[in-house]
Amino acid sequence: MVAPAASTGLIPSPRKTNAVGIIARLIEWCARNPLLTILFVAVSVLFGYRALLATPLDAVPDLSDVQVVIYTEWPGRSPDLMEDQITYPLTSQLLAAPKVQFVRGQSFMGLSFIYVVFEDGTDLYWARSRVLEYLNTAKGKLPEGVNPTLGPDATGVGWVFQYALIDKTGQHSLADLRTLQDFSLRYWLEAVEGVAEVASVGGFVKEYQIHVDPNKLAGYRVSLQTIMDAVRRSNNDVGGQTLEIAGHEHFIRGRGYIRSLRDIETIPVSVDKNGVPVLVRDISVVTLGPAMRRGLAELDGEGETVGGVVVMRHGEDALGVIERVKQRLDEVKPSLPPGVDIVVAYDRSELIKRAITTLKHTLIEEMIVVSLVITAFLLPSKTCINAWNYGKRRDARGNAPQSSSLRCRKLGQVFSFLC
């Protein structure tokens, strides 16, 4: 038998390797290709700057849910009737819509609000299209003449700007200012890019009012519904084809739109026993007055005023939208009636600019502190000088000497690139 070899008790040393980390290789590649490195950094900075310019700026983070608001009006009905006839049928129908988390409903006097909340990440306009599909199906369950409408494509933080119309000369009433807001200024601002809605607040909404005398109704044996039908039928234009006269066509039409109090007063309702037409003015008094309101708007404690709330569209740049709204207001100011002025009541752009200024100062301070810390750790150290010398002494293949440590090799490559 051959005796086994005696163990010497020595462990063979592991084979030396020149393994270099990914970061060291990246630094070495950058040092060997300075032109490509500078080009890559320049392109990255350019794309970063363009992305910064295209980033929507806002001081209030939008953490709201993806929701669609449905607004339904049925004047004069009590909240319980609104709940039974409108809110409940629509809510039960919308629960089956895809990606819906929950549906909330609120019923008020003559008003119904339904909030359809979708899952996070759902596209808002896809959600609005799904809600429209289900509304078309549910309309058959609603009372006649009731038409639900979708709210603006905005979120809870879309309230970015608010203004007020004032007239210190006393030439225009609150009703006149509300008419200017509803039929002129609101349309000018809704045409601005990024604006979803301009809501009117305060003032009085003008309307024709017919004050019926019950005694005269009983005397002429006319019901209230008869008056309503007569007024509704009289407020309409009709067409009558064409009539050819002397080789020319003449369009025939009946002009019936109500334009004054007299037009309403002369509407025939019925005839009496002698065949004489009974007009609206015979059984009522027609006036021009304010619609019923349940709130008001006040400015700086100086009295009632009329205002508008600018609501930003979902996903828009708040700072850009506000600047465009201000520019449009400056353009329309010369067209306002004498004595009317526009006062800014809320402007989020000031908050956004202050937030950007604070962030800018903070970043500059942090960069200065980090630069000082790096300088304090690297500049006075002899290791940096030795690393720079190691980086300068290279063999024929361009590598640092094998006797240098990995730390010195890394620092030497960095300082070779910087120097």
Question: Which short descriptors sum up this protein?
Answer:
419 residues, alpha+beta, Alpha-Beta Plaits, Multidrug efflux transporter AcrB TolC docking domain, DN and DC subdomains, four-stranded antiparallel sheet, 13 helices, 14 strands, 42% helix
Brief description of this entry?
The protein is α+β, with helices and mostly antiparallel strands and 419 residues long. The protein is built from 13 helices and 14 strands. The strands form five sheets. The chain has a four-stranded antiparallel beta sheet. A four-stranded antiparallel beta sheet has the order 6-13-5-14. Strands 7-12 form a two-stranded antiparallel ribbon.
Describe this structure in words.
This protein is an alpha+beta fold and about 425 residues long. Among the domains are: about 20-55 and about 380-419, no CATH class; about 65-155, Alpha-Beta Plaits, CATH 3.30.70; about 205-290, Multidrug efflux transporter AcrB TolC docking domain, DN and DC subdomains (2-Layer Sandwich). It is about 40% helix and about 25% strand. It has a 4-stranded antiparallel sheet with strand order 2-3-1-4. The chain has a 4-stranded antiparallel sheet with strand order 6-13-5-14. α1 runs parallel beside α13 and α3 packs across α4 (about 125-140).
What's the count of strands?
A: 14
Shape: elongated
**How many helical elements?**
13
Question: Quick check: average pLDDT?
Answer: 83
CATH superfamily of the domain at 65-154: Multidrug efflux transporter AcrB pore domain
N-C termini distance = 70 Å
User: Taking Cα atoms only, what radius of gyration do you get, to the nearest Å?
Assistant: 38 Å
In terms of DSSP E residues, the strand content is: 15-25%
Biggest sheet overview:
4 strands, antiparallel
Strand order of the largest sheet: 2-3-1-4
Q: In which range does the helix fraction lie?
A: 40-55%
CATH fold name of the domain at 65-154 = Alpha-Beta Plaits
CATH architecture of the domain at 65-154: 2-Layer Sandwich
**What would you call the structural class?**
alpha+beta
Order of helices and strands: HHEHEEHEEHEEHHEEHEEHEEHEHHH
**For the record, what CATH class of the domain at 65-154 applies?**
Alpha Beta
Low-confidence stretches: 1-11, 400-405, 414-419
